[in-house]
Design a protein that fits this description.
The protein is an alpha/beta fold and 302 residues long. The chain has helices spanning 2-17, 20-23, 42-60, 72-80, 91-100, 155-168, 175-178, 188-196, 207-215, 246-257, 263-271, 286-301, and strands spanning 31-36, 63-66, 86-88, 104-112, 123-124, 126-131, 146-149, 181-184, 202-206, 224-229, 233-234, 238-241, 274-279. The chain folds into 2 domains: 26-112 and 236-301, 3-Layer(aba) Sandwich (D-Maltodextrin-Binding Protein, domain 2); 126-231, D-Maltodextrin-Binding Protein, domain 2, CATH 3.40.190.10.
Length: 302
């Protein structure tokens, strides 16, 4: 009798509630929302991304809307709250996002061409810069000066300086104990210009973002001293929500991985100084997770 009751209960759950596999159906929205981590020129970057957005709309047969971010965190929260379906994140902000919601998953990034200071491949570095002619030509010379970081969610503009630079150069001392003042500028371009304009004495910036400022004619490579370089960091991840239907995710992946084959869409690759997109997996960002854990462990000790 007990066995029959269990069978009947199972039948009831399947018929009236649906099998577990169907309990949470995949999402196939009429429109997709796309976003990027913000820079000083987010509006300009949106224009640059237009060929990509148009190609994504064509491939998926859906309208693609843009979510305007105000910080790294707003993009992450927008994905968690399902306001954004596809986004370009920073490596650190991606790790934070995936930790908060495993539904957020990297699928690709771009491989850079060699640039002014950036190296070829799907990675970049954090670099510590000062202005040429300032007399700040060594790590010792910037002690007690003003340091610009970019955003708390930045990899090269916050995580690497606070974990790797602090450990390797400052013997685990926090940045605030070495510099007179540590400020967040809001972006790599803003940090670069803060040093150039004398509003900050030094700054940690991403090599590919620094190259963008040079390309816009705002500064020259020769305007700066380069005091420290990090190890290679995996390039900015493009992520989508895994709750999107598998066929839709596959189409989104195919869209980005074939950008180089489409003349109009390839304009975006040319703008970011890349020849093609490359497939990435979550484990490619484990190096960032290790640094994040080290940063959190240090914070608990202090």
């Amino acid at each position: 009798m007990k066995k029959i009751s269990i069978v009947c209960l199972s039948f009831f759950l399947i018929v009236f509630l649906g099998p577990p596999a169907l309990a949470a159906e995949c999402e196939n929205p009429d429109a997709l929302t796309f976003s990027i981590i913000p820079t000083e020129e987010t509006i300009q970057e949106l224009t640059i991304y237009k060929p990509v957005i148009d190609y994504l709309a064509k491939k998926t047969g859906k309208k693609v809307e843009f979510y305007m971010p105000t910080s790294y965190a707003t993009v992450v929260e927008a994905m968690i709250n399902k306001w954004v379906d596809v986004a370009v994140l920073g490596p650190y902000s991606y790790v934070i996002a995936h930790e908060k919601d495993p539904d957020i998953m990297v699928f690709t990034t771009y491989a850079k061409r060699p640039g002014h200071i950036v190296e070829e491949g799907p990675g970049y570095k954090a670099v510590l810069i000062t202005k040429k002619g300032s007399g700040l030509t060594s790590i010792d010379s910037i002690k007690g000066k003003v340091l610009a970081l970019t955003d708390p969610g930045s990899t090269s503009g916050n995580l690497f300086p606070r974990v790797v630079f602090s450990k390797d150069i400052l013997k685990d001392a926090p940045l605030e104990s070495y510099f007179e003042k540590v400020v967040y500028s809001g972006g790599h371009d803003l940090s670069t210009m803060a040093v150039y304009d004398g509003k900050a004495d030094a700054a940690f910036v991403a090599t590919h973002r620094f190259d963008n400022v040079i390309d816009r004619g705002m500064v020259k490579k020769e305007d700066f001293n380069y005091l420290w370089w990090s190890a290679t960091i995996p390039q900015d991840p493009f992520a989508y929500r895994m709750s999107l239907c598998p066929d839709l995710r596959a189409t989104i992946e195919e869209t980005f991985l074939t950008l180089h084959k489409v003349p109009e869409a390839k304009k975006w690759l040319d703008n970011v100084k890349s020849n093609k997109m490359v497939k990435m997996t979550d484990s490619d960002y484990d190096v960032i997770r290790i640094l994040k854990k080290a940063k959190e462990a240090r914070k608990k000790k202090s």
